[in-house]
Specification:
By secondary structure, the chain is of the alpha/beta class. The protein folds into two domains: 120 residues, NAD(P)-binding Rossmann-like Domain (Rossmann fold); 174 residues, 2-Layer Sandwich (Dihydrodipicolinate Reductase, domain 2). The chain has nine helices and 15 strands. Strands 14-13-12-11-7-10-9-8-15 form a nine-stranded mixed beta sheet. It has a six-stranded parallel beta sheet with strand order 3-2-1-4-5-6, with helices on both faces. A hairpin with a 2-residue loop joins strand 11 and strand 12. The longest helix has 17 residues. The termini are far apart.
Length: 327
């Protein structure tokens, strides 16, 4: 298979603005089909993908024998259902995060993946960006001494958008599920470590979804803190603080959308090294990595087992969480 032909289930705004364009731009990929029952929603996709096939249902797209892989940007509570249907239809699957609402749900996805021999993965694009490979290398080399603490935050404000699925409990909304996966998973990916204890989890809820979360954890050898919110001005950052230096990613989650991707290494003697990546699109890199794995079995950076670990950490945070009701 020289080119992986993709279909997208649903005309989501994020798919239109980012993932459909990434599939269209990626080497070895073709954005070939879209499933939506609303013709007007297909128009913006067809504008940059001439020849796009538009199916009027998700089932029709999954039945299309010309489609090799599907991308699923549906609301969170539908991810498991449609991933399983896509696997049953013989498709490779890239599903938006969070892929499940509970870690245990990954078990059926892993079993279905293994039985189908298809690539099935969560769309966790950040691990495909070279800033993460570089941070992982620096820490593994001991350039910052012994890692002692990781500090992460990710915030944005959608308070005025009550209709947004992130603000609805029935669609699996909440800040932790939407962006907490980044603050948790990025620390796990770079360090290769798993939390041994959630030390605190203070959650502020509005309409039964978390809008502010303050989380503390212990990993073997280092402590961890995270701040996640859908009610504060846009901000993101992760710092790996060691006994002899630190590594900071100043735009770790929306590289070249929120800001320029930048890694800052600080070492003894005031030595400060800055590495920058301009013009890289991590969504395109994700699609290209997925296609390479489909074609020749290249190891994929974010297998379901990794995503399950992040969801397990999130489950522990929800179980630990002390709740304040806001709004």
């Amino acid at each position: 298979m020289s080119v992986v032909r993709w279909g997208i289930l649903g005309a989501a705004k994020f798919a239109q603005e980012h993932m459909a364009r990434a599939i269209h731009a990626a080497d070895g990929a073709e954005f070939a089909a879209l499933a939506t029952s609303h013709a007007e929603k297909a128009a913006p996709f067809a504008a940059f993908a001439p020849g796009l096939t538009v199916h009027d249902s998700y089932e029709a797209l999954l039945a299309d024998p010309s489609i090799d892989a599907v991308y699923i940007p549906l609301p969170n509570h539908l991810h498991v259902e449609w991933t399983l249907k896509a696997i049953a239809a013989g498709k490779h699957v890239l599903c938006e995060k969070p892929m499940t609402l509970h870690a245990s749900e990954f078990d059926q996805l892993i079993a279905a993946r293994d039985a189908s021999e298809r690539l099935v993965a969560e769309a966790y694009m950040i691990v495909h960006h070279p800033q993460y490979t570089r941070a992982k290398e620096i820490i593994a080399e001991g350039a910052i001494g012994e890692l002692r603490h990781v500090d992460a935050y990710f915030t944005f404000n959608n308070e005025l958008d009550a209709s947004n699925i992130r603000n609805k409990p029935e669609t699996g909304g909440g800040g932790l599920r939407d962006i907490g996966v980044y603050t948790f998973g990025s620390a796990r990916f770079v360090t290769g470590a798993e939390p041994t204890e959630i030390t605190h989890a203070d959650l502020t809820l509005e309409n039964d979804v978390d809008v502010i979360a303050r989380v503390g954890a212990r990993f073997e050898g280092f402590s961890y803190s995270a701040f996640v919110s859908m009610r504060l001005y846009n901000r993101q950052h992760i710092c790996f603080h060691g006994s002899g230096g630190s590594v900071t990613l100043t735009c770790p989650y929306n590289a070249n959308v929120f800001d320029q991707a930048e890694l800052v290494l600080e070492e003894p003697g005031g030595v400060r090294t800055v590495e920058r990546w301009t013009g890289l699109n991590q969504y395109v890199l994700q699609v290209e990595a997925f296609c390479a794995s489909v074609r020749d079995g290249t190891p994929y950076a974010c297998p379901l087992e990794f995503s399950r670990g992040t969801q397990e950490m999130m489950d522990q945070v929800f179980a630990k969480g002390g709740v304040t009701h806001g709004g």
